[in-house]
Amino acid sequence: MKILGIESSCDETAASIVEDGKRVLSNVVASQIDEHRLYGGVVPEIASRRHAENISWVVRESLLKADCTLADVDAVAVTYAPGLIGALLVGISFAKGLAMSAGKPLIPVHHIAGHIAANYLTHADLEPPYLCLVISGGHSHIIEVRDYTHYHVIGRTRDDAAGECFDKVARVLGYEYPGGKFIDAAAKKGDPNAYRLPRPRIPDSEFDLSFSGLKTAVINTVHNSVQKGETISREDMAASFQKTVADTLVERTMSAAKLLGSKKLAIAGGVSANSGVRAALETACEKRGIKLYMPELKYCGDNAAMIACQGYYDFLAGKRADESLNGIATLSLDRISE
Ligand code: KG4
Ligand code: ZN
Questions:
Q1: What is the pLDDT of residues 245-260, one digit of tens each?
Q2: Which of 24, 133, 153, 214 is most buried, judged by most C-beta within 10 A?
Q3: 83 lines ligand 1 (CB under 6 A)
């Protein structure tokens, strides 16, 4: 069964054809990052306009690359939540039009469920139940994936998401937006023990995460050095910051795995591309006999193959949308599992 996936929740216009939730026949991503970089972050109004300009050719290209026509597609899956509302609505409206005109089922897909499903594209052997650490630009969650369409969020960030924190720290160190990958590269050349940074603690929760204190500590350290005329080593700060984030994520995720008795852990989202986080989780999982699943780097960030993949499982579970489908800016994964 071939599913056409469409993703437009943030700053990537993407379309992909995936067969049986496994075989990626095409994966087209049009990034707007170069334009948003000028403003140091995603400008929602610009994002919506670029999606409107790009969506037609991106979908056409995904069909061409997969050597398909719309007639060969069995269903259209589209991200409907969460995300920038104007951006979501471009993909949703386009998907509705396609599905209605071609007489195909329309499947509404949750963006975070899509990120999690990116693991099925890389690991044919991964099956629920398992634990998943979702770390992206807008979300940081520890999630019990109970089956392909049921989730229980057991930990979430109380403030900034991990990716947001990477991007803000990158900015104060003088890197371009989005700075996660620059921190990753700089950290490879720095000393992770050069700066002592606070480890986030949440007194009343074992699994929730918090990154704003860490972010503020880095910003204050950098500003204090500038005021004193001292130079800061960007590489050392990047390495110290990244190690603190990785240690925190490992500690929280391993506590959750222990409590739930999970022997399988997956990671997902843009920050799951981070080499320090990957290495720290690898070591921790190996020590505890936990099997670790990580998506290929090309499926860590936003893409539509993950939406088509999750769309396949949502289709099998009977999820369908009609012409009244609307976008939802904020929607917890717990809510779609009720
Ligand atoms: O999942 P994603 O593409 O978009 C959202 O759904 O939010 O995540 C984007 C985030 C950005 O904050 C970006 O800086 C971060 O992922 N990111 C990284 C790396 N690559 C992307 N963060 C740390 N290390 C990386 N290698
Ligand atoms: Zn995303």
A1: 999 999 999 999 999 9
A2: 133
A3: no
